[in-house]
Fold:
Amino acid sequence: MSTQTDTRSPSSQVSTGITPGAHLADPAPLGLAAFALTTFVLSVVNAGLVDAEPVVFGLALAYGGLAQFAAGMWEFAKGNTFGATAFTSYGAFWVSFWYLTGHTDLSGLAEGDVANGIGLYLLAWGLFTLYMTVAATRVSMAVLVVFVLLTITFFVLAIGEFAGSTGWHNLGGWLGILTALAAWYASFAGVTAFSFKRPVLPTGTR
Structure:
């Protein structure tokens, strides 16, 4: 076995026509599924349908967090800047949510300050999602729908925290459920396209 070092310049190596990460499976269905399931469970709680928020903590860390973060790393390997930024960021969001809700002591803050702090947290994620929505217009209609719904969800939940309104919070939960269903659709389309070796569900590729 030869141990000769490849001394070609990066530009000459790229010119071979090898696609970065071509040997990797598409990580997008995993990232979308991890996002969808975790979002669905939390949103059912936010909508007021189930009063059991701690149920989502394990999902937030393991599936929405670590699995989605891993999908983002694989997107980096495949050279997909959009997918890498989205999945890595939302994977980190779920880890931060797990830590904020289960391991952060907010007891020393006034109730209004806690609500405003969480509102700011949600607002900031809404702003990030808003500019990712602009980029999503060049991906597919299925992905665009996910980002539009997610942007609205974050802003509605932020309003709910700032206003101390259960109604706005519940509305954000219902919007989150719709977001999760849209993400599951996009994930299902990706998985079945691979399994059947042809598109099964339309995604509106742009």
